[in-house]
Amino acid sequence: MCENCDNLSSALASLSVSTHNMAKTNVIDPEGDVILICGKTEFQVSSKVLSLASPVFKALFSPSFAEGQPTSSKASRIQLHDDDAESMLFMCAVLHHKCAFSKGIGLERLERLAVVTDKYDCVCAMCYWGRCEIYNTKHTKEPSRLLWPAYAFDEAQFFNSLTKFMMLNLPNDGKAQTASRKYGIPEEIESHIPEGLIEAIFLAEQDVKREMQIQIEQIISPIAEKSTAGDLILGSDDIIFSHCDCISISSLINGLSRQGLWPLTSAVHRLSISMLCKKLEACDVGLASRITKLKKCSRCPENVAAKVAKIREAALTRFEGLCLDCIKNPGKSPEQRLQCRVPHQHFRGLPRQLPVSEGQ
């Protein structure tokens, strides 16, 4: 590591624990013509470098803004209000090619860095460094908190995979009052996420769960029809079942109960999609073993095990994450969607409909 990187690393390490009352100046560019001030922290930078990277800085340094006017022959001093000092120091260091890659800056720092990157509109200059940090942090125990960095640093592939993971794997504990709390995204970060994005993920998940519940109920419904007709009395020990459809469905209800999936409504609300599929698979194994020797009747076009397997397959394999390109550029034509960085068929921007029900 070069001397400049060593000095910068020391500055970053001391910044968060500094207790000095006097302003501390971190020299990023010794010949810099601007001193940025964040609270009690200052750093000397080049206005030319920052202007090339950020249209916001370019406007800030222009003669039409008072902040861009030098008070003397010395460097201009510009106060940056409401910006996180550590994040600004990181960003300016990267833009000046003074920051070496590390093993990861941590999730909270990455979220804050994404905030200032977005605010100063310098994603083009920061995206490579930001994407490396995203992949350095991807094994976090709070993966949903990478949603904002993935959006801000324009990492389309990771964004697609992450939104799919969030839809499939994060359960509803029944206590979350907002989608952001459900996914564990801090309130101060949620305010930066585009309106409707978190809701779209939440609604997409709910649409899939609702479709799964409807399809399972459609398998079970013949029981009610036959009970009404007086053909069968469910639960009676001396009943001899003559229809394979009937015995398969009754086995399914017993299997759902053993897996904690009955009644369906509460289970669907409580569990993630992937957990619902796992529990359905456990029911499916029992069904397959119990109906192997039964013949299909005219009312049973396929056995229940195959129907349940089809529901699981639709939920897990035909499910798509969100397209970052469509979200940032809504209203694309079908031809334009072919140019998206992540190929997709079903989602267009912020979806309300899920593909599970298609082709059923």
UniProtKB/TrEMBL annotation:
Q: Where are the transmembrane segments?
A: none
> Which segments does the entry list as coiled coil?
none
User: Which segments constitute the BTB domain?
Assistant: 32-96
Pfam families attached to this UniProt entry: BTB (PF00651)
CDD domains in UniProt? BTB_POZ_ZBTB_KLHL-like
| Superkingdom as given in the UniProt entry | Eukaryota
Protein name stated in the entry: BTB domain-containing protein
The protein's organism comes out as Letharia columbiana
| Lineage of the organism | Eukaryota, Fungi, Dikarya, Ascomycota, Pezizomycotina
